[in-house]
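Hi, can you check this record?
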Amino acid sequence: MPSFAYVARETGTGRELRSSMDAATEQAAIAALLNRNLLVVSIQEKIAKKGRTAGGSVPLQDLVIFTRQLATMIDAGLAMVTSLQGLADQTQNKAMRDCIKDVCTRVEGGDSFSEALSKHPKVFNRLYCAMVGAGEKGGLLAEILSRLAIYLENTARLRKKVKSAMMYPTVVTFVAIAITVFLLVKVIPVFGEIYSGFGAKLPAPTQFLINLSDLIRKYFILMTLGAGGAVYGWLYYIKTKPGREFWDKTRIKLPIFGAIAHKICLARFTRTLASLVRSGVPILEVLQIVSQTVGNVVMEKAIKVASSDIERGESISQALAKHPVFPNMIIRMITAGEQTGKIDNMLERISDFLDEEIETTLSGITSLIEPILIVFLGVVVGGMVICMFLPIFKLSEIVSPKK
């Protein structure tokens, strides 16, 4: 659809506006502006740049606020265009504001709300668009948006918990590494120069630290570049298809942290599935969307295979039970939900239960990691200090060695 840059004035205030909008023709763009009580001063078709995707990514919290406010405004009886215009005016994030304005323009031009949202895949993913589309078809858009806002809030809450739980050990580990490198590069060489004047053989631990310090100082730049290259290479590898498959398969099998990663993927799977099923999205489309949002290649492949089995007539629980990545507890609860006809409620209970387990596990790990890191830091730093003062304890033997 062509895009038009325009200059217009508000009929009431005379305020000049400069923006752009999409419309089928120039006349359609002018008509849409007139419907918004705007007097067109000039309008010109824009030449779109190839390869650019409409919209930019925005923080999840901004998306949550937008969804919650839009649901409230529509439930209050406000028109979609009026609601979007109001939200665009009060949004602080520029990318989000531009996105809302473009969606508003497309809705004014005749697109459905879900179609307009789908033009911005970086902001509104397939899950979002599918739920909005189901709400439009069923006449329950305000209710669906409220459910979507709750889903996004739960997702943001879980993400925040994981980040906050991992922040402390990450900072402590970084500080421990920085202190160790500082001692090796700056402090130990001073002791090495002092001890070199003794002209005697130093204790083995002290000599080892001095040699290690000399090695690091000599090849510090190369080691730094090598470490940076290794990190970059690993990050690049896990973005490739084979690398992502290897990492997703490995990380859910890691001790302690693997269980957390597995539960996070399961919680995302059950919560997304519950939201889509409750919104009335067809089950095969639900599974296709869920497979793309679960965040793990192993689980994604399992869901796609299960989708094919469901298409052939199997129940959801029977199809998922064939894959070990889904625990027996989840399969039993899904089976109970199918038998009672309340699978969406059962899936939501599973996701809530998994969220509680994740929070409990993270709290336990945080409490456990704290003393471990402190002990590690004490052993490393304390060990280095003892090694460097060891010649002083044996000063008489070093200065006057036995013959």
